[in-house]
Amino acid sequence: MDLVTLILMFLAGSLVFGMFFLITDSLDKI
Amino acid sequence: MTTDIIGVIFIYAAAIILAIPLGKYISKVYKGEKSLLDFLKPLENLLFNVSGINPNEQMDWKQNIKALLTINFIWFLMGMIILVTQSIHPFWNPDNIPAMEPTQAFNTAISFLTNTNLQHYSGETGASYFSQLLFLMFMQFVSASTGMAALALLFKGLFNKSGKDLGNFFNLLVKSCTRILLPICLIIGTLLILNNMPMTFNGAQQVITVQGDTVNVATGPVAAMIPIKELGTNGGGFFGPNSTHPFENPNYVTNVIENIAMMLIPISMIFALGFYLNRKKFAFMIFFVMTAGFLFLVIPTIVLEMNGNPAITDMGINQNMGSMEGKEVRIGAAASAFWGIANTVISCGSVNSMHDSWTALSGMFAMLGMQLNAFYGGVGVGIINMFIFIVLAVFISGLMVGRTPELFGKKIEAKEVKIAVLVALAHPLFILGGTALATYIWNTTPDAVETLKWLNNPSYHGFSEMLYEFTSASANNGSGFEGLGDNTPFWNISTGLAMLLNRFIPIIGPIAIVGYLSQKKFIPESAGSMRIDSSIFGIVLFSVIIILGALLFFPALALGPISEFLLMIK
């Protein structure tokens, strides 16, 4: 198994979820 | 032909008739009123005690959304780990299925997390029984429950005359599973087993065919997965061919049961809204708008598929049974067309015929159902998507008549409209942007057919296949046009991101809007208030959906199915 790709996939998912939390917190400022 | 039409009318009528009492029951469950399955409370309390959650703790919209995102992130990590390690699981892998490749696992984990079930693998060769039951089927329950719980938060927000509490997401999530999905799945599962659907943990069965060949016939715990596949509008099949497979949809009776199951909760949620808010007229207005949209898509599709493909007629081939390429004889053209449109409109995404083989305009109607994404929709998220259109229609109507836009006594102001517009634009952005990117890569790659191996069909139909894939992913539908070689890093990652973004942005936005609305001052409705339960508002709402959809998607549809149709009749 390609470990680098695997780690990148975990990171990609984590980053998008992180972005959802940021969006949730920043909607007050719209 | 008449029997085919009667069958389709029966399915639709049965789904609507069953949806009304179910809607009333769902409203009672979410309101916390006394209901039929209250005896399950000790089981729910056990779950809450084990996980240290206080189900009675009231949370505002942000706390609820963060709870929703956190549990979904944990499920994403869990899914990735299970799928990339399935080859070393100690049990429930009798056919020695290998571990998933990382980008495929990424796509699959997100696909089931987001209630999409866009499968870039074939169930019988790509997922072990362990993965099928402990991740894929588990996610089919909890992803459906997530959508339903999010809608229950929206109900509470609209119901509130003051205050910022929207309820408790975890409480609603668990109740959606224990009180709604599990009991109905038990009934459907029993009916399916009685109709010869397999339910076994044995591996593939060796069978000697009449020709004398030895073949391995895949089987498994199919009847456990199919009820929630349909009821939760998941659509992810146990087998690669989904509900065209004779073990996943053995006969016309199972076809009727599965088709009713997929339509049941999305339609019942409309009635649940009316019962919960005590605004039955408003719920009927939404029901009629959604039904008009559904009929606008399903009637021409049935007619087209029953009339057959003109190109095949020109070859002198009899099409008395309709356009039967890619369809099952035991199901027929009408029931296949009805299922296909119901599945694309309802964001279930299971298939009982190959949409790639549909006549060109039928393919367009299937895509349009997902692109508009407002008629019935998925469990919970269907009404949530419609809510965005309602906010936009209220705003536009307010501008037209010169009154302050109001929704149930709360003013719709700039913040709510901005959020609604951003959510409404996210969906077409990923469909059109993704398709444009895929088309660019295909056209600029030297010898793309051999290098990329995506498309087997050239020209307009190939474009339709790429457009359909991004449409299906963005609408969290999960059906495939097929014909597209989609198990590649590009498709796995791009559609994975499209599914993830288009699942949670359309949940965060509407819940935020009701969160802000519920904190506003309540202004009692008066003779001067704009009525949003009237037939006039229904027409405005329908027009907003159709005009937005036509403006956004017509150019792309013209490059795909419409061009293909014009070429065929030339």
Overview of this protein structure:
The complex is a heterodimer of chains A (30) and B (570). Chain A is mainly alpha-helical. Chain A is built from one helix and no strands. Chain A is rod-shaped and about 45 Å long. Chain A starts with a helix and ends with a helix. With 570 residues, chain B is an all-alpha fold. The mean pLDDT of chain B is 93. Chain B contains 19 helices and four strands. The longest helix of chain B is centred in the C-terminal third of the chain and has 35 residues, at 535-569. Chains A and B meet through helix 1 of A and helix 3, helix 4, helix 15 and helix 18 of B.
Give the overall shape of chain A, derived from the CA principal axes. rod-shaped
**Contiguous runs where pLDDT drops below 50 for at least 5 residues of chain A:** none
Can you write the helix and strand succession of chain B as a string? Answer: HHHHHHHEEHHHHHHHEEHHHHH
Radius of gyration of chain A: 13 Å
Q: Work out the helicity level of chain A.
A: over 70%
**Gap between N and C termini of chain A, in Å?**
44 Å
Number of helices of chain B: 19
Number of domains of chain B: 1
The value of Rg of chain B in angstroms is 23 Å
> Which percent bin holds the helix content of chain B?
55-70%
Mean pLDDT score of chain A: 94
How far is the first residue's CA from the last residue's CA of chain B?
28 Å
